[in-house]
Design a protein that fits this description.
Blueprint lengths: L12 H8 L3 H10 L4 H8 L9 H21 L2 H13 L2 E7 L6 H16 L4 E7 L14 E3 L4 E3 L5 H4 L14 H6 L10 H5 L9 H16 L6 E6 H11 L5 H7 L1 H15 L14 E5 L2 E3 L2 E3 L2 E3 L8 E3 L2 H9 L3 E3 L1 H10 L4 E4 L3 H15 L5 H9 L5 E3 L10 H5 L7 H9 L4 H4 L4 H5 L1 H13 L1
Parallel strand pairs: 1-2, 1-12, 2-5, 12-13
Antiparallel strand pairs: 3-4, 6-7, 6-11, 8-9, 9-10
Length: 460
């Protein structure tokens, strides 16, 4: 008698068809790992990336490495830095899509966990996670970086008044210190020792900004949840991206030419307008022109008018000449931060780094990629070489692949101290990608991707 084997489950064809319209590289990742453990999917995302080949890409990677070296110098010893950068050179991957929230936030925790799995399964000593800091301390009522969700209630993490929380941005709000009294009041909870003690160890510290505080606290939490130290997170944010853009503006390299030379910028803006009027326009973030402005501890929208970056409808707001040296100095002074387009250009697309993010990000990174391609000068040999290199996109889905429905606090309950991440590693070596994503339920329910799919059905 011949045994009959059921075919392995396959991903939903209609969802992959929609994703393939904009980011086929993401579809390939899903297809290759559909029935594999989530830990294998994470390993796949952190696989090697081809080294930069064109002069602009080589220069961009060199700048990024130098700025990362400075960031690592704050938290690592020289030998650890050397090892981390050597690993990054072979597997240049950045987990992004994270907002600057304490890791007690479930979605932030789940995304960082996937990155940790990828790093551990590849034997890396460290991995990089980009946390956006342009958000305000309170985004909606009692939500955002200024709040700690403890289950039954929410703690005002820094003891900052509500009127300040909604008016100050994470990257510049400060100095701050932990709301010791409110945190200690949580101490009666039976499971609080699994995270509260780690936070209260910093109760007497004063941090320069809320972003600095959240970065330091998150580093401490991960170190406590994985005392084996298998892979160390290195948190980077918009301020590091600003330093990278400033380094690009030190010279008249590709990015300087695209921004400063009128004809090149006109071509770049035409490419942006084409993307904004195309079928995938809903993915594009367009809140500010090239840069965000920083004034009075808040991030401000800017528009480019008559050669000046200005705050619209604010005569006494920021006004910065759109010139190379002035932009560079404003970035170094903390007056400007790059927008998402420039951030992903200098951290990922130009230096040939794989960026792992959420369901909107995989769309807009693909569009940013196409915008850069359209803005390149095919008559310039080095830009022609870059265009050939850009035929391979390093763009991946990693935000809410793991999407647990229970709180981080509940996940901590019953786990021996220092063993949370190792326990989850064992768990996600057994759960498949298909099971964890519930047959791509999140993609199916995503408003942007659903509308793309509906539009495609109408066309066909």
């Amino acid at each position: 008698m011949t045994a009959v084997f059921a075919p392995a489950p396959a991903p939903p064809v209609e969802i992959l068809a929609v994703l393939s319209l904009l980011c086929p590289e993401v579809v390939r990742d899903i297809e290759q790992n559909w029935n594999a453990p989530v830990s294998d999917y994470a390993r796949h995302l952190w696989r090697p990336v081809a080294r930069p080949a064109s002069d602009p890409a080589i220069a961009a990677r060199s700048i990024l490495r130098e700025v990362m070296h400075q960031r690592l110098g704050v938290i690592m010893q020289p030998e650890e830095i050397r090892k981390a950068l050597e690993e990054f050179e072979h597997r240049p991957v950045i987990q992004s899509g994270l907002h600057c929230l304490l890791l007690m936030d479930r979605i932030t925790f789940d995304a960082l966990l996937l990155a940790w799995l990828g790093a551990v399964e590849n034997g890396l000593s460290a991995f990089f996670a980009f946390m956006g800091t342009t958000m305000t301390m309170e985004t909606i009522g009692r939500e955002g970086p200024g709040w700690l969700d403890v289950g039954d209630d929410k703690v005002n993490l820094f003891g900052m008044g509500r009127h300040k929380l909604c008016r100050k941005s994470v990257c510049v709000a400060g100095p701050v210190s932990l709301n010791k009294r409110a945190l200690e009041a949580v101490g009666d909870e039976t499971d609080a020792s699994r995270w509260l003690g780690t936070l209260l160890a910093s109760q007497d510290k004063v941090f320069g900004t809320a972003a600095d505080a959240l970065t330091a606290l998150n580093e401490d939490l991960v170190a406590d949840w994985d005392r084996s130290g298998m892979a160390r997170p290195v948190f980077i944010d918009d301020r590091l991206a600003a330093s990278v853009v400033a380094r690009h503006l030190d010279s008249d390299g590709l990015l300087s030419r695209l921004l400063i030379e009128p004809a090149r910028r006109q071509r770049l803006e035409h490419a942006m307008q084409e993307a904004a009027s195309g079928p995938f326009a809903r993915f594009l973030p367009s809140a500010t022109d090239y840069f965000w402005g920083i004034r009075e501890e808040r991030v401000r929208k800017l528009v480019l008018e008559n050669g000046q970056l200005i705050e619209p409808d604010r005569p006494h707001g920021l006004s910065i000449p759109f010139e190379r040296l002035q932009l560079r100095q404003a970035l170094l002074d903390g007056v400007l931060l790059p927008n998402l387009f420039l951030t992903f250009l200098v951290l990922a697309i130009l230096p040939r780094v794989r960026v792992v993010g959420g369901l909107r990000q995989i769309g807009y990174v693909a569009l940013f990629h196409s915008i850069l391609l359209a803005a390149l000068d095919e008559n310039a040999p080095e830009e022609r070489e870059l265009a050939a290199e850009l035929q391979v996109r390093e763009n991946a889905w990693g935000m809410r692949v793991i999407d647990e429905k229970i709180s981080v606090r509940e996940q901590l309950a019953g786990v021996p101290e220092g063993a949370l991440f190792p326990k989850l590693l064992r768990q996600y070596r057994l759960r498949t990608f298909a099971e964890t994503t519930d047959d791509l339920k999140l993609v199916r329910e995503n408003a942007r991707w659903r509308k793309i799919g509906q539009a495609e059905i109408k066309v066909t």
